[in-house]
Amino acid sequence: MAMGKVGKTVESLGDYLKEQRVSSRLSLRQLAEQAGVSNPYLSQIERGLRKPSAEVLQQIAKALRISAEQLYVRAGILSPDDGVGGSVELAILGDTGLTERQKQSLLDVYASFLALNAAEAEDSEESTDATEEELAHEDAPITTETNTVTNEG
């Protein structure tokens, strides 16, 4: 199932790149040369057959004079809902002192921390709700039945 999502992401990335290239009036060959990638490789990216690295996307974005962040989102490297978190991811992707593999590892670890924190926050909310419910029951008056024995006699 994940493969289907990746395929669609890459396909939309390729369509977007082709659209940007055509609107910039660049041939496939010209863009490949400016981005420093091979013509066949760029063609495969546009057709959705290859998923480029963040570094290649950055080079293509520079050649097309568009935001690398847009390409990262379309490639599935960044999530459009990241908000503030996106700045951390962009810093990692933009760090020239790291290899592509190191960047991907850091992004994976960062994403796992965010997911863990979100799960813990959700669990905390659920336990808070349960505690509030328990407290509400504790505040209820306790009634007991008493039997009165009368001594008639």
Automatic annotation (TrEMBL):
<dbReference type="Pfam" id="PF01381">
    <property type="entry name" value="HTH_3"/>
</dbReference>
<feature type="region of interest" description="Disordered">
    <location>
        <begin position="120"/>
        <end position="153"/>
    </location>
</feature>
<dbReference type="GO" id="GO:0003700">
    <property type="term" value="F:DNA-binding transcription factor activity"/>
</dbReference>
<feature type="compositionally biased region" description="Acidic residues">
    <location>
        <begin position="120"/>
        <end position="136"/>
    </location>
</feature>
<keyword id="KW-0238">DNA-binding</keyword>
<feature type="compositionally biased region" description="Polar residues">
    <location>
        <begin position="143"/>
        <end position="153"/>
    </location>
</feature>
<dbReference type="InterPro" id="IPR001387">
    <property type="entry name" value="Cro/C1-type_HTH"/>
</dbReference>
<feature type="domain" description="HTH cro/C1-type">
    <location>
        <begin position="17"/>
        <end position="71"/>
    </location>
</feature>
<dbReference type="GO" id="GO:0003677">
    <property type="term" value="F:DNA binding"/>
</dbReference>
<dbReference type="InterPro" id="IPR050807">
    <property type="entry name" value="TransReg_Diox_bact_type"/>
</dbReference>
<protein>
    <submittedName>
        <fullName>Helix-turn-helix transcriptional regulator</fullName>
    </submittedName>
</protein>
<dbReference type="InterPro" id="IPR010982">
    <property type="entry name" value="Lambda_DNA-bd_dom_sf"/>
</dbReference>
<dbReference type="GO" id="GO:0005829">
    <property type="term" value="C:cytosol"/>
</dbReference>
